[in-house]
Structure to design on (191 residues):
């Protein structure tokens, strides 16, 4: 893997990859498959983990619950002042943190992030037997593939159980500082 990473780094620094592969005798298809595996490893294990995913996705997921909650509570308002659709842009790393959050909260398998990939959530409203009462369901999709369908109350509960509060965020972000402070406290002379 180290040699492969050095090849990728050299390529990124402007060396001609085809010439390099020809000179070294490295099979192009083998290189391509290995590069994909390295990228998957980097994206899934080095760039992010479940803790960082929960940290990064917490604001997004709280916003999502807020939008859905407002939409449900606004159903009787015929003016529909709450948005029916919300679109947020992001990068592959944004999709990664959302995936790690969904894996932690709902045990959903990670998907490889392809160029132009997308994640979306849908809130569905279903009337209960012509009673003017409604059930709400959340659907979660990756690149058009349905990965989760769950009633809204269960979805909301799992999200709120998984997101981090301010103290958890502070502890994660300042772990090194917290460790140093604990070490200083341990090194103090006790009288």
């Amino acid at each position: 893997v180290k040699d492969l990473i050095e090849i990728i780094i050299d390529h990124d620094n402007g060396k001609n990859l085809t010439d390099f592969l020809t000179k070294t005798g490295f099979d192009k298809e083998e290189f391509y498959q290995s590069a994909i595996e390295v990228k998957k490893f980097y994206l899934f294990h080095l760039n992010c983990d479940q803790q960082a995913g929960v940290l990064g996705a917490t604001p997004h997921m709280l916003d999502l619950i807020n939008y859905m909650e407002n939409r449900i509570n606004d159903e009787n308002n015929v003016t529909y002042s709450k948005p029916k659709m919300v679109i947020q842009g992001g990068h592959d790393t944004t999709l990664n943190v959302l995936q790690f959050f969904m894996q932690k909260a709902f045990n959903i398998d990670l998907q490889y992030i392809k160029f132009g990939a997308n994640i979306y959530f849908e809130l569905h409203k279903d009337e209960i037997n012509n009673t003017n009462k409604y059930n709400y369901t959340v659907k979660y999709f990756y690149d058009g593939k349905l990965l989760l369908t769950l009633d809204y109350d269960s979805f909301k509960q799992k999200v709120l159980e998984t997101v981090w509060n301010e103290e958890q965020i502070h502890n994660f972000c300042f772990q090194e500082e917290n460790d140093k402070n604990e070490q200083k406290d341990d090194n103090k002379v006790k009288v």
